[in-house]
User: Fold ABC transporter ATP-binding protein from Paraburkholderia largidicola.
Amino acid sequence: MSEQMTHDANASTHAVVEALGVGKRFGSHAALRDVSMRVLPGESHALVGRNGAGKSTLVSILTGLRKSDTGEVRFGGELAPPIADRDAWRERVACVYQHSTIIRELSVAENLFINRQQTRNGVIDWRTMRRDARALLDHWKIDVREDARAGDLTVEARQLVEIARALSYGARFIILDEPTAQLDGDEIKRLFRRIEELQREGVTFLFISHHLQEVYEICQAVTVLRDARHIVSAPVSALPREQLIEAMTGERGGLNVTDAASREPLPAATAVALQVEALTGADYEDVTFAVKRGEVVGLTGATSSGRTSVAEAIAGLRKPQRGGIRVDGAALPLGDVPAALKRGIGCVPKDRHHEGLVLTQSVAENASMTIARMLGKFGIASPAKKNAFGKKMIEALGIATQGPEQAVSGLSGGNQQKVVMARALATDPDVLVLIDPTAGVDVKSKEALLSVVDRVREEGKSVIVASGELDDLRVCDRVLVMFRGRIAAEFPAGWEDNDLIASVEGVSLHEE
Assistant:
């Protein structure tokens, strides 16, 4: 990368936070090698890189949870406080994690002032705490009731409460870790507006996301890590998407996935593999569509559109209220995962940590979970057979692991998702249901996971991709857009991004 790609190198003395030559090792593994980064006042600075690039380790050092082996961290030009001085760190930096640290059973006020409540005669002064909470929320224009139970808030509101809590300590540098992962379109827009308002009030953000489009929407600068090293820091306007992906992967050409628009269309007489008939559930109604053998159909829409629930109903993970599902013309029992597996439906569920994996078990055990009966008598398979199958899937999907016996908890997010995909493919399904298959994974893992779609499609299998990610949907022969629980539009392969996004948001760009 050229010299001009170094982001404001002369602004060192004015940086809100600097990492200077930071290195960190865990045993023989180098998690960070001589990494430097500067974040300037009032900006949103993106930190991007593939899983395993070193982002999490750098964040843990910037927040004082870990001490670097080499280099140093500075805030406003001054050396970071000692690791043991937690109050001093809280005054300088806070991280709002993807998985909320809010205690759901407590009120908003209690969460804002946890472990620092004002007392009177040894008893918590509830009136003062509620008054101070209201003043804090009003000051930062956060429209949440101070006496509301935190567990009753939306994900969006909980994030804003966490930001307010951080600001109340005096911190003006906030790290946002995948802040939009659980938000829909309108919530993301509101969050971004709030971030921009806070920036104008002197708050600085480090924004971590796998959604590269968001980097261009909200950030002014970006830093790329790859293989534990700093690759580039630059103004976002100076780094086009293709160059950003090249910096993340070390390879030219951007995301390398098959666009369905380049495929030959299926013959008109191709048999229907899956028929969904007037399916109705809690957040969707009267959903009807068919998927042919060898066809890839996308289901998209806002988080609240019902797309995930419909996909889960097809896989047996959720029982619909009424309607029917047919596989090769025969009715499928509803809300029954074993029946769905038996009838040839495989699934990559939305939440790999709670539905897709047993983190304490090995790669081989997780990958072979759905086929234990086929590997051994009475459903008990020998470790040798499980490991042999595990090795086969490691090679087929390019899972980066020490071997089939490694616990999946030790894998990166992208490689964990590949193990979930391996389990879905283990039964050799005729219909593969993928729910947000590339959420929270890096660019190269995205390519590997989406290449599976092309592979199984060529074998004559059908695929449903339920996702809000445009890259996921490009592999689809057609995309069904859901809006408020119903199918609102259908787009053949080759759609324009703006048209599809507008349809997801419930508007038309081509009204006469």
